[in-house]
Amino acid sequence: MKVEIYSDIACPWCYIGKRRFDQALERFDGKGEVEVTFRPYQLVPDAPATASPHRAWLAERYGPQSRAMDDRVTELGRAEGIEYDFDAALHANTFLGHRLLHLAETEYGTAVQGVLKEALLKAHFTDGVDVGDRAALTEVAVAAGLDRARVAEYLAGDEGADEVQRQLDEARELGISAVPTFVFDGQWAVQGGQEVETFLQVFQQVAAEQQHAEQQVDATHGNGHGDACADGACAI
């Protein structure tokens, strides 16, 4: 089973959603056969390269209710073991961070990419790190297991930029307009930081659908019929 998670480093609900998803995956009997990949999404693609205080930016965007928004997320995050520090958090452009996640996936694998994703979320929301700064990103990446020289070289140039932009464009074309969005096997999408039990039910349902599809293919091959088209879909 392949799960693609569209999320942004600067999305507080993406942090909560990841923690809940991880808990559900740990409880899923077929967890060893699940591959998780993080796909890029930018809530504020035009965020400036120079970071600014999160509180001031959110207040300018949402007005007086911004403080209550942060307080609500802080309360929910604490239940998932997340310590949000919005006083220290910085509003930053996350494109470089998404490039770094792309590097992790392509050269280290999805497991390391997952470790880096968690580290970037913590850096942004708990530690007050500027995730748009190359030097800061390098330190986070090295702590997550990436090679320092390779990361520095990668971030100094434009490697991966076109591919990340292509994936960002694809997300929009797919109709993804809010994050986190979890896409299971390219067919089923779950949006938002759902409860653990909800994610677990989705895992079980997708696994059941996979098993059912495999049984249908086996039955088709067994009865000698080559036409496996039914209900608007064809099995190849």
Task: Give a nutshell description of this structure.
With 236 residues, the protein is of the alpha+beta class.
Model description:
The strands form 3 sheets. This protein has a 4-stranded mixed sheet with strand order 2-1-5-6, sandwiched between helices. Strands 3-4 form a two-stranded antiparallel sheet. It has one domain (2-193): 3-Layer(aba) Sandwich (Glutaredoxin), CATH 3.40.30.10. A hairpin with a 3-residue loop joins strand 5 and strand 6 (188-191). It has helices at residues 12-27, 54-62, 66-79, 95-108, 110-125, 134-143, 148-156, 161-173, 196-223; strands at 2-7, 35-40, 52-53, 90-91, 181-184, 188-191, 229-230, 233-234. The chain contains 9 helices and 8 strands. With 236 residues, it is α+β, with helices and mostly antiparallel strands. InterPro entries: DSBA-like_thioredoxin_dom, Thioredoxin-like_sf. Residues 3-202 form the DSBA-like thioredoxin domain. Keywords: Isomerase.
Question: Which structural traits does this protein have?
Answer:
Glutaredoxin; 4-stranded mixed sheet; two-stranded antiparallel sheet; 9 helices; 8 strands; 55% helix; Thioredoxin-like_sf; DSBA-like_thioredoxin_dom; oxidoreductase activity; Putative DsbA family dithiol-disulfide isomerase
How is the CATH topology named?
Glutaredoxin
Low-confidence stretches: 223-236
Distance between the termini: 18 Å
Q: In the CATH classification, which architecture applies?
A: 3-Layer(aba) Sandwich
Structural class: alpha+beta
CATH class: Alpha Beta
Annotation, overall tally of beta strands: 8
Gyration radius, in Å = 20 Å
Please give the largest β-sheet: 4 strands, mixed
